[in-house]
Specification:
Radius of gyration: 23 Å
Distance between the termini: 91 Å
Number of strands: 10
Largest sheet: 8 strands, mixed, barrel
Strand content: 15-25%
Helix content: 40-55%
Strand order of the largest sheet: 1-2-3-4-5-6-7-8
């Protein structure tokens, strides 16, 4: 009876085993499909490139643009977040980052309006931290591209996202020092969204801190967000770092950030991402607001 019972249990387990194997096969097929779609996007240049303006909140002057590369919507990648999450964990990540860097800079130069060509505007490009520290990365490759495009390294800001955490801060800081010596600047993205971002600020000493949109959303009505903003602003002031508030969508959020003395801003209220790197502007009827050190009239007529 014992043997018969054991045999019965094994027979009953067979459907579960095949269900498990079938599930794994389906996942592997999906992964292969996504990888094929990623390679097709790179091989055929199917990323769409947008530029979102970054404004000085005291004057309304456009100081630069962030480059945003977006994939076509598909069953494999229903959102941009799905796409970049997958690309970041594949063996193609290094090649993909090189591809993104090239199209970001070349399309920026191609589409920059003629009157702005001589202006020293900043271009922010998103970079995976792992790529800068990759042994396959050739020293001087980005400099060669910039020389080819007629851009100065002083105009380029490498934007590191907090979602892709740095493991070896000491070693990575040495890598960033090498880029800084060449003239590049560093921004830490998504600051204020987690512990890693605060640790990153201390170790990497970026030239720019980009505040996560979750910290900015409704900040004019949230005391806790306001206190965290003030802590980061004070830290930035002591460390000679400039603060950029991302995700500004309402006049109320903009006004609060101006009153708080935040340096720069980015978001739909100042300019939506577009195919051309045009100047942003404040919402109509911007009020005269007090800022640190006096009053300034904030106007969209420049």
């Amino acid at each position: 009876m014992t043997k018969r019972k054991a045999l019965t249990q094994k027979l009953l387990a067979i459907p579960q085993y095949f269900q498990h194997v079938n599930g794994r096969l389906r996942n592997e097929v999906k992964e292969l499909g996504r990888l094929s779609a990623l390679l097709e996007i790179m091989d055929n240049g199917r990323l769409d490139t947008f530029f979102q303006p970054i404004l000085e909140l005291g004057s309304g002057r456009t100081i630069g643009h962030e480059v945003l590369n977006r994939p076509p919507v598909s069953l494999h990648f229903p959102t941009t977040e799905h796409f970049y999450e997958f690309a970041g964990r594949t063996e193609q990540m290094f090649r993909f980052e090189q591809y993104c860097r090239r199209i970001s800079l070349s399309r920026y130069v191609e589409r920059l309006p003629e009157p702005q060509c001589g202006a020293e505007r900043l271009v922010f490009i998103n970079v995976h931290p792992g790529v800068l520290n990759d042994v396959r990365h050739k020293s001087g490759e980005t400099l060669g591209l910039l020389q080819e495009l007629g851009l100065s390294p002083e105009c380029v800001v490498f934007e590191l996202t907090e979602r892709q955490a740095v493991q070896d801060y000491v070693g990575f800081e040495k890598v960033l020092s090498h880029y800084r010596e060449q003239g590049f600047r560093i921004a830490v993205d998504d600051a204020g969204s987690g512990y890693n971002s605060l640790k990153t600020l201390v170790y990497l000493k970026p030239e720019f801190i980009k505040l996560d949109k979750s910290l900015i959303r409704g900040i004019h009505d949230n005391r806790e967000q306001q206190e965290l903003l003030e802590l980061i602003r004070e830290y930035a002031e002591r460390s000679a770092t400039r603060v950029i508030a991302e995700g500004i969508e309402t006049p109320e959020e903009l006004l609060y950030l101006q009153l708080a003395g935040i340096d720069f801003g980015q978001g739909y209220a100042l300019g939506r991402p577009g195919h051309w790197p045009v100047q942003g502007e404040f919402p109509p009827s911007s009020p005269k607001v007090p800022v640190r050190g006096g009053y300034k009239h904030v106007s969209s007529d420049r």
